[in-house]
Design a protein that fits this description.
Layout lengths: L4 E6 L5 E9 L12 E9 L7 H13 L5 E7 L10 H6 L15 E7 L7 E2 L2 E2 H8 L26 E3 L2 E7 L19 H6 L3 E6 L2 E5 L5 H10 L2 H7 L3 E5 L6 H4 L14 H14 L4 E3 L12 H5 L19 E7 L6 E4 L2 E4 L7 E7 L3 E3 L15 E3 L8 E3 L13 E6 L4 E5 L8 H7 L12
Parallel strand pairs: 3-4, 4-5, 11-12, 12-13, 13-18
Antiparallel strand pairs: 1-2, 1-21, 2-3, 6-7, 8-9, 9-10, 10-11, 14-17, 15-16, 19-20, 21-22
């Protein structure tokens, strides 16, 4: 059977990543529609106990429990950083593994699994999540798909799929990339460092009904360089002609995206080669929407507004409009005072005086840019006047946020839906004021959204 629709959900886990993909036998799945098949790519959070990651894991459990029987067709960990896999333990503990003689919980089966990096790097405090996954994996530990060094389904001039799940084709764009950029020799030993771990991230593409989704894990500039080398423009036109959504590499990190050094320390945005490498990747993907999962005012200063700018030219407009902002919606990112955003206001260009201080800002946009930290009044360009900036489209300008209306969702899990006819849509998985169980779950850990006090 081939799915009538798929839903790709970028979960709000705070600082971390979780991507849950489900297929359905109907074209318009409801919040309570049971998935037919599922794929999970990463599930972790820096604050896995008291933050939003725990409820996000509960939501994944709920989705799996709706199935008969609960099954993950694929579980993929992009790499070994805890904020990409540590919530999986909570999911597994909610089910009994196959072969349990006297089960007290539903049985969960994981059909196939793969991970980026070395198994030992997943050991945290003497616990290795891969050992637990193996108990639920058909065939046990030996059934993990082995990812070779600098592996890609696009290398060698041929294209090879990882698998097909209910009409959804899975491809590995790159995995376990070496520390050095493509075409360069390693200058030092290939010891496992945080840079190397991120660079090894599995970058996965899912294709369904002529529409593609790309997840990047914590891919670095070096990871992107390998993709740029492997995938030709002809292959991109054939296999990635319509990338509906791309998760920004490494939560939208500027530091790692603009680095081609094997040491993990580069010149950043001042490195012309690194900037050109990112632009080549953006032009190869031609993503219609970009999404970043990150924590609020995190110390890493991501997602970067400067990095997002390199994807602007390919983005579509208005897949989602915030109800109180016709034609636009919000996103939150880190903007550096040296960004010097300039927009074209035909026939002349206009230099926008934004930002004057380096920090996180909540801005408006009519382009399809989505962040799990959706709206924050304190992050507006002028919180006292509730003033924000539209970036992009052109011309950029300062505008007031609506008054007398409920705040937009503060934190959002974004759901992308594609039907078998190839139509696509994006919306918050839950909305303020909804009576659905999903909304109650989502808003609980984050607090209620209160009306604005204009007095």
């Amino acid at each position: 059977m081939t799915a009538r629709s798929i839903k790709f959900t970028v979960l709000d886990v705070g600082q971390g990543t979780g991507n849950f993909i489900a297929t359905y036998s109907v074209t318009s799945p409801k919040l309570d529609t049971a998935p037919d098949h599922t794929v999970l790519i990463d599930l972790g959070a820096s604050d896995s106990k008291s933050g939003p990651g725990g409820p996000a894991a509960d939501w994944v459990v709920d989705q799996l429990e709706r199935m008969s029987p609960p099954t993950l067709d694929w579980l993929l960990f992009s790499h070994s950083d805890s904020d990409h896999h540590n919530l999986m333990k909570k999911v597994l503990e909610s089910f009994d593994p196959p072969g349990t003689k006297n089960p007290t919980k539903k049985i969960l089966t994981i059909a196939k699994a793969a991970y980026g990096g070395d198994k030992d790097s997943y050991t945290k405090n003497k616990y290795n999540i891969l050992d637990d996954v193996a108990k639920y994996l058909t065939g046990g530990a030996k059934a993990f798909l082995e990812i070779q060094s600098s592996a890609s389904g696009f290398s060698g001039g041929t294209v090879e799929k990882m698998d097909t799940v209910d009409g959804v084709d899975l491809y590995l764009l790159v995995g376990n990339a070496p520390r050095s950029a493509a075409g360069k020799r390693l200058s030092r030993s290939t010891r496992v460092t945080s840079w190397a771990v991120n660079t090894q991230s599995l970058v996965v593409m899912l294709s369904y009904a002529g529409v593609q989704y790309v997840t990047t894990g914590d891919a670095t500039g070096v990871t992107m360089s390998w993709i740029n080398q492997y995938i030709t423009s002809t292959q991109a036109n054939t296999y990635l002609p319509n990338v509906f959504m791309l998760t920004l590499p490494h939560h939208g990190s500027e530091t790692t995206s603009y680095c081609l050094s094997s040491t993990g320390r580069g010149k950043g945005r001042n490195d012309d080669n690194a900037t050109e490498n990112v632009q080549q990747f953006a032009d190869l993907m031609k993503a219609r929407t970009i999404t970043a999962s990150a924590g609020e005012t995190n110390s890493y200063n991501h997602p970067s507004g400067y990095l997002m700018k390199q994807f602007w030219s390919h983005l579509q407009s208005n897949a989602y409009e915030e109800p109180s902002n016709s034609g636009s919606h919000y996103y939150t990112a880190y903007f550096d005072k040296n960004d010097k955003f300039t927009v074209q206001d035909s026939p002349s260009s206009m230099a926008l005086d934004f930002p004057d201080t380096s920090r996180f800002y909540t801005v408006k946009t009519a382009k399809d840019i989505y962040t799990t930290v959706n709206f924050s009044e304190e992050h507006l360009s002028d919180p006292g006047d509730c003033e924000t900036v539209i970036l992009p489209p052109n011309p950029a300008k300062h505008v007031d946020t609506p008054t007398g209306a409920p705040y937009p969702e503060l934190f959002v899990a974004w759901a992308y839906v594609t039907t078998d006819a190839g139509s696509t849509d994006v919306s918050p998985l839950w909305r303020t004021g909804s009576t659905s169980p999903d909304a109650a779950f989502a808003m609980g850990p984050r607090g209620e959204v209160a009306p604005r006090d204009d007095e």
